[in-house]
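Continuing the batch. This is chain 6 of the set; chains 1 through 5 are on the previous pages. Same settings as before, nothing changed between runs. Recording input and output for traceability.
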Amino acid sequence: MKIAESGWKKHLEDEIGRAGKVFVLGIGNSMRGDDGAGSLCSEDLAERLAPEMESVFRSVTAHDVPENFTGVIRSFGPDLVVVVDAVLAGEKPGSIVLVDKMDIKDEGLSTHRVPLSRFADYLEKTVGCRVVFVCIQPDGLEFGAPMTKAVRGAALQISRFLAETASARFSTKP
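Output for chain 6:
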């Protein structure tokens, strides 16, 4: 299953609406151009979230080692983990798509040590949560290259959307 640019917001909003607690994990190496999109998104999101939301909605940057954060995720106990990453999805650079873990192959699509499909399986089994992959199509992944404008814009668009959705769903302010 791949939910394209037109439907990702609605699907993600529905997923967050069903969750009691949400953990956003940004993945990517900012030294490799567009690969840093997930990290940029989670860093920006962490700045946008109100401090009082930390008990129900948290954003953490895992860089290129998401497996190092399984304990943090487990102790938080989310119903939903949203993984934001640059993934080769066959779209135009900067496109945002939701990708099912079964569509993320174990080789070739990721720069991470542990395949993302196995990472999701592990979280689902040990935490009892749902895992959603929000993917940004990269343009360049070369070491030392800057992030492209299209991918940067997509990462910040996701961050803004998640912050607004979290605020609407979890805000305790009247």
